[in-house]
Amino acid sequence: MTITDHYPGPQVQLFGVHIDALDAGQTLDRAFELADRGVPSQHVVLNASKVVQMDADEQLREIIDGCDLVNADGASVVWASRLLGRPLPERVAGVDLFTAIVERAASTGHRLYFLGATDEVLDEMIRRLRKRHPGIQICGARNGYWSDDGEVIDAIRMASPDFLFLAIPSPRKEYWLHQHLGDLGVPFVMGVGGSFDVLAGKVRRAPVWVQRIGCEWLYRLCQEPRRMWKRYLVGNTKFLGLTAREWRRTR
């Protein structure tokens, strides 16, 4: 493990970026430390697909490496870390971290803003969250279809959230949050991909035992083969090649 300038905690270097070597509980604590610090900070997850994307996109790699909190959302990244002799403690799925932040925020009074997905998904997710967590402080929400960044940024600044969750595809969400981080003024911003769909009940996650053996990607492929086949089958093959290249480089 190595230490970088991001914060005094355990980190490893993989595929040209730092990853915080924290388990789920430690990652949750770190998210709230950053939120309470009050300085705009960005979180990102790293999985096989994003490793492949940033290999072809140097700017994306720089954005990820510059984030204040980076965790491995993908069993493949954890396996690669162990193979390469720089082991990460465990996979920290983005949807699990998102859910855990929302749950803790409901008891601490931290303010939440949800940006992305459709109005239908947002409404159903918020309805479920308010029912599950009566004390939750949701200070704003809007769908993921907009043309005026300034209007969206102004609305978020006026709402003054502690946490902003952005549910649009990668790498667009990483670019958008990085570009507007200072203007947003939110202490903790996090791209959450399809997590709104999961919490709204629109998309089912794999059973826990499937998640534990690292095959959640296969479950999603079976659910949406036409949309996911290229990402998982082609992308995973490229990821294996990048892991082999990293192994050769470090030897």
Folded structure, characterized:
With 251 residues, the protein is an alpha/beta fold. The chain has one domain. It is 54% helix and 16% strand. It has 12 helices and 8 strands. The strands form 2 sheets. Strands 4-3-8-7-5-6 form a 6-stranded parallel sheet, sandwiched between helices. A two-stranded antiparallel ribbon has the order 1-2. α1 packs across α5, α2 packs across α3 and α2 crosses α12. It starts with 10 loop residues before the first strand and ends with a helix.
Instruction: Spell the H/E element sequence.
Output: EEHEHHEHHEHEHEHEHHHH
Structural class: alpha/beta
Low-confidence stretches: 1-6
Q: How many β-strands, per DSSP?
A: 8
Broad shape: globular
Keywords:
alpha/beta; two-stranded antiparallel ribbon; 251 residues
Short précis:
This protein has twelve helices and eight strands.
Explain the layout of strands and helices:
Layout: E1 11-14, E2 17-20, H1 24-37, E3 41-46, H2 48-55, H3 58-65, E4 69-72, H4 75-83, H5 94-108, E5 111-116, H6 119-132, E6 137-142, H7 149-159, E7 163-167, H8 172-184, E8 188-191, H9 195-199, H10 208-212, H11 216-223, H12 225-250
Parallel strand pairs: 3-4, 3-8, 5-6, 5-7, 7-8
Antiparallel strand pairs: 1-2
Helix pairs in contact: 1-5, 2-3, 2-12, 11-12
